[in-house]
Amino acid sequence: MSTDRQAFWSRLPLGREVTVIASDANGLAALAKPAGVLSHPNTRGEEARSLLRANYDLTAECYHWEDAGEVRRVWLLNRLDSATSGVILVCNDEKLATVMREHFRRKRVRKVYNALVFGKPPASTQLWRDRLAVQKRGGQIRTNASGHIPAESKMTLLRSWGGLSLIKLEPITGRSHQLRVQCAKRHLPIVGDATYGDFGANRQFEKQHRHKRLFLHSLETVFDYEWQGRTHHFAATAPLPPEFAGRH
Q1: Domain range spanning residue 28?
Q2: Average pLDDT of span 217-222
Q3: Is 124 inside any structural domain?
């Protein structure tokens, strides 16, 4: 990677506890986003709670700020709910950002999540197929499992203890709140899910373990992409937060 690229990523105005976990010579980078941090500010004044402490252009889907008298820009390639932690991708080249967004739309990106859920799946691996309905009202998204939008995910049980299970989720489609709704439908609500989860179990878990968050983490993102006549490989992993391991 060129020194200029390295310097660019080292000077990002990163948000609270956000870190750069991978980057390449073409201008792609992966950041690790903590739970509670916004992928981007939706209104003025939210910059302090966002991925970068910078202004955001909602139309261009990019952050921008001044550094050493120059305007710097970073384009956001995907989003995570504020409550979800883990890998999120950005790019400092507008043309490459356009290519990569199309890559995401065509489902050419492999994403792996880990979730801590109440209960235990009936099998060690399952392919979950559902039809969802997604509604957006007043800036909020609500999804339910009684619609016509196809949603598929692969589930793998990693381990279980004390009424909890750590599972790996690989979404094949990418619907809003897909993983949270698919887990809830199968009576495996994600710990800390304040919208689709088990509210009583959440309160008991928080009281016992002193952790209040949605236990959904974007662990890994992997893909190959074409750029300037060559095929490039990109992979990024955001370490699983220690609270997911539990005491068992």
Answers
A1: 3-106+228-236
A2: 98
A3: yes
User: Which of 2-16, 25-39, 205-219 bottoms out in mean pLDDT, i.e. has the lowest?
Assistant: 2-16
Contacts of 41 (CB under 8 A, 6+ apart): 47, 49, 50, 56
- Do the bridges between strand 85-91 and strand 216-227 make them parallel or antiparallel, or are there none, so unpaired? parallel
CA atoms within 13 A on the CB side of 93: 14
Length of the chain: 248
CB atoms within 10 A of CB 6: 12
pLDDT at 1 over 70: no
The number of folded domains in the chain is 2
Task: Give the Cα separation of 215 and 108 in Å (integer).
Answer: 26
Pairing of strands 164-171, 70-76: unpaired
Dihedral angle computed from the Cα positions of residues 82, 84, 89 and 92, in that order, rounded to the nearest 10 degrees: 20
12 with 98, same domain?
A: yes
Tracing tokens 């009576």 back to the chain, one arrives at: 187
Q: Whole-number mean pLDDT of the chain? A: 92
User: pTM surpassing 0.85?
Assistant: yes
Residue 63 lies in a domain: yes
* C-alpha dihedral (174, 180, 182, 183), degrees to nearest 10: 140
